Amino acid sequence: MLGIAAAVLFFIAFLINAADISTNDTFTSTNVMLIGLTVLALHVAGVGTGWGSRSRRR
């Protein structure tokens, strides 16, 4: 799920940069890209995968 969120954030950053949309200082394409990289790093680290220490009963 975090991988999909990162892809969406990268796409939003691309649209802001490609369309040359003027935004405020906190919502620039670079900041959105850095948030996407953070979410992607969390995804690669395994946060939010749901495969924790759950025991499976059969």
Automatic annotation (TrEMBL):
Q: Which domain of life is it from?
A: Bacteria
> Sorted alphabetically, which keywords does the UniProt record give?
Membrane, Transmembrane, Transmembrane helix
Q: Where are the transmembrane segments?
A: 34-52
Q: What protein is this chain from?
A: Secreted protein
